[in-house]
Amino acid sequence: MTSQLFIRLKLHPLAAEGELAALERQVFDFLGYQWAPILANFLHIIIVILGLFGTIQYRPRYIVVYAIWTAIWVTWNIFIICFYLEVGGLSKDSELLTFNISRHQSWWSENGPGCVRKEASMSGIKGLDSHSYISVIGCALEYRYIEVMHSSFQILIALVGFVYACYVVSVFTEEEDSFDFIGGFDPFPLYHVNEKPTNLLFKQTYLPA
Description:
By secondary structure, this protein is mainly alpha-helical. The chain has one domain. About 60% of the residues lie in helices and about 5% in strands. It contains six helices and two strands. It has helices at about 1-30, 35-55, 60-85, 110, 145-180, 200-205, and strands at about 115-120, 130-135. Helix 1 (about 1-30) packs antiparallel against helix 2 and helix 2 runs antiparallel to helix 3. The longest helix has about 40 residues, at about 145-180. The radius of gyration is 30 Å and the shape is elongated. The model is unreliable at about 125-130 and about 180-195 (pLDDT under 50).
């Protein structure tokens, strides 16, 4: 019981940090219309909640699912890093993350720290007050590096979560094995309290006629 209480007390800050990081990333992916990361972030939030529920309710299978998902989540974030660093023939200007539905890029590409957008009126369209972005200048940090830092932070949290999930499963398994050894799940007790002592049985057997 002490180890379970220790695990639950330690899990809440870790789960809260992971949830906040995923929600923060989800907001900016929504602003940038990045549909593939949006779906991945949504699944990640669901699995984190499932892992937290499994720890609180003593469900090791849910924690195993969370551990498996963390491996997938690390792989996904490594892909995002390779995408924005254009590793292996990938291009950050492609529409891969938007499912080729739109030409949107990361929200940070136009709203990063220090970025200034220069606008110009669209030519050839009469009576329409629309604008088109020409360039973005003055960015203190290029947007792809911001996305890489986001993914790197997610990988760090996922690795910590994976190690902690394995520890929780091992603790739960050891406690279940020790409880079975004591006989906690045995429906038939080994000794009956109401049985008569053996010395009384012998006295009844040798009573004179």
